[in-house]
Design a protein that fits this description.
Blueprint lengths: L2 E3 L3 E5 L2 H4 L8 E6 L19 H12 L3 E11 L13 H13 L2 E9 L8 H6 L8 E8 L17 H9 L18 E3 L8 H9 L11 H10 L5 E4 L6 H8 L3 E6 L2 H7 L10 H9 L5 E2 L4
Parallel strand pairs: 1-10, 2-9, 3-4, 3-8, 5-7, 8-9
Antiparallel strand pairs: 1-2, 4-6, 5-6
Helix pairs in contact: 2-3, 9-10
Bound molecules: S-adenosylmethionine (SAM).
S-adenosylmethionine binds next to α1 and β9.
């Protein structure tokens, strides 16, 4: 089993259906993850067929629930998908949401929507060629918890005030109590985040070594928002479909303990590039992880 350790976390190669069971009960403050979607044209790491997808994913979520602390949360990112050979939307993520609430007794604390302005048009047949569907730039993010009041604090994810709000606060009379000035604007559930990274150490090292980078990474801003919003320093966060380990990297920089699980050894080994001190050690780091049966300490690279 290839894996590596950092100061605050561990990335483990294996099937997360088994690895979730190894987590202590009531220990996880936040599960945040982006599962493989039931795409018509699967990515290189494979996807379940549309028919079997929801039963498959529901099993993972059932295993995650007892691992949550009493105030813990689950955030799952779902991409959009069309039915095979039809310009009709696949409603899998909506069906799954209903099943998570009805069958697993989870509360939908709030749906979030990730607007990615840099997403390529999909499916190109309907969007670019026939021009019968609009560009689809929004993913659904379901925030769920067994608790109606999980840990959450929007003051940790305040945004810059808009020009008009700044003007309003300047002109506001003391008698006007409509809006109180905070340290920033309260966030909305529409998260605009471009997925346009092309210079992170992860990508640079992949290019240097000629390794194909992960094809479905989320932007660091996405886990960053939920980690800040739903957890405190030293809390414990798990991503069960780790990919290039964006989640682990964000947790490490924000002082949270973390674990990520990923089935592909190659993805695990390459994801370690996010943590190495010297990019010239990337090849040695990659080979060491690929050939090791114990967790490799990343601080040596
Ligand atoms: C959408 S990607 C996650 C990308 C990740 N959020 C990132 O930023 O890089 C989903 C990942 O789940 C992995 N995966 C699929 N089934 C798995 C399983 N049973 N156990 C562990 N990982 C799995 C795939 O190999 C793929 O890398």
């Amino acid at each position: 089993m290839s894996s590596y350790k950092t100061m605050l976390g561990e990335c483990i190669c294996g099937d997360s259906k088994e690895l979730i069971k190894s987590l202590e009960n009531s220990s996880v403050d936040l599960f945040i993850t982006s599962p493989p979607y039931p795409l018509i044209n699967p990515k290189e790491y494979g996807n379940k067929s549309q028919e079997e997808y929801n039963d498959w994913l529901l099993e993972f979520i059932g295993l995650m629930i007892p691992k949550l602390t009493p105030t813990g949360s689950i955030v799952i990112d779902f991409g959009t998908s069309y039915l095979k050979n039809k310009p009709s939307y696949n409603i899998y993520s909506f069906e799954l949401l209903v099943r998570m609430v009805k069958e697993l007794n989870l509360n939908l604390c709030q749906p979030f929507y990730w607007y990615n302005p840099s997403r390529l048009p999909y499916p190109s047949m309907y969007v670019c060629r026939r021009k019968i569907r609009a560009k689809d730039n929004v993913n659904n993010l379901w925030w769920l918890s067994p608790n109606e009041n999980p840990k959450a604090d929007t003051t940790k994810v305040l945004k810059k005030y808009s020009k008009s709000m700044k003007k309003y606060f300047k002109k506001k009379s003391p008698a006007d109590t409509t809006f109180q000035k905070n340290k920033g604007a309260l966030p909305s559930n529409l998260l605009e985040m471009a997925n346009a990274d092309n210079k992170s150490q992860y990508l640079q090292a992949c290019r240097k070594l000629g390794i194909k980078y992960h094809p479905a990474r989320f932007p660091t801003a996405l886990p960053e928002f939920f980690v800040k919003f739903l957890t405190d320093e030293n809390d414990f966060i798990v991503d069960i479909f780790g990919g290039s380990n964006t989640t682990g990297y964000v947790c490490e920089t924000l002082g949270r303990r973390w674990k990520t699980f990923e089935m592909s050894r190659e993805y695990v080994a390459a994801s370690a590039f996010r943590f190495i001190r010297d990019i010239n050690n990337a090849q040695l780091c990659y080979d060491t992880i690929m050939n090791s049966n114990i967790a490799v300490d990343i601080s040596q690279f």
